[in-house]
Design brief:
By secondary structure, the protein is of the alpha+beta class. It has one domain (about 10-160). The protein has 3 helices and 3 strands; from the N terminus they run αααβββ. The chain has helices spanning about 1-5, 10-55, 65-75; strands spanning about 95-100, 120-130, 150-160. Strands 1-2-3 form a 3-stranded antiparallel β-sheet, with helices on one face. Helix 2 packs antiparallel against helix 3. It is rod-shaped and about 95 Å long. The relative contact order is 0.15.
Length: about 180
């Protein structure tokens, strides 16, 4: 009797699938999560680049810091995983720090009067692991709903010199009409 049970192969596939399937599901969901994080990070990188480019091209424009922040927020909101969280300021899930260089074309360093000023933008986005999956993969009333997945802070910064074409610093004591 025991020998015939050991030779019986029925049900072995079901047991193997029961052991391997959860591991495969975790690998697939983990791969999808890594892809989403990379996609959002690239979107933030592009948005910050657009904002820095705007700052660098028009540093003296009034209200340029607010325009650059609005551009960064609009660009980031085009990503479906970020969405409206980039446009709202409360709760603070999406922070934008803009350094417009004081609106100056040049750094103001007396030793290097032609040195360009610098502008920079930093975006910090609080990303919840499993975002996008919580509605169908981990509903709150399921057995996995008790899991509180940690938040990540995705931070992207960019900066560069101000591009003020046809502007040169005027040394002190030299008037416009002087040679």
């Amino acid at each position: 009797m025991v020998g015939s049970l050991l030779k019986d192969k029925r049900g072995t596939i079901a047991i193997q699938m029961a052991l391997i399937l959860p591991i495969l599901i975790i690998i697939v969901l983990g791969t999808f999560e890594v892809w989403k994080i990379l996609y959002v990070k690239q979107t933030l990188n592009d948005a910050v680049y657009q904002g820095v480019r705007l700052l660098a091209m028009r540093p003296n424009h009034p209200g340029i810091a607010q325009e650059a922040e609005a551009l960064v927020r609009r660009s980031a909101s085009l990503n479906s995983f970020v969405g409206d969280e980039a446009l709202t300021t409360t709760p603070p899930l999406f922070d934008v720090l803009v350094n417009d260089g004081g609106g100056k074309c040049f750094s103001g360093n007396p030793e290097k009067p032609t040195e360009a000023g610098n502008v920079s933008i930093t975006v910090t986005y609080r990303w919840t692991l499993g975002k996008g999956l919580t509605g169908w993969a981990f509903p709150e009333n399921s057995f996995l709903g008790f899991m509180k997945l940690p938040d990540l802070k995705l931070s992207v910064s960019a900066g560069g010199p101000v591009l003020c074409e046809r502007q040169t610093p005027v040394p002190e004591g030299v008037g416009k009409g002087s040679p």
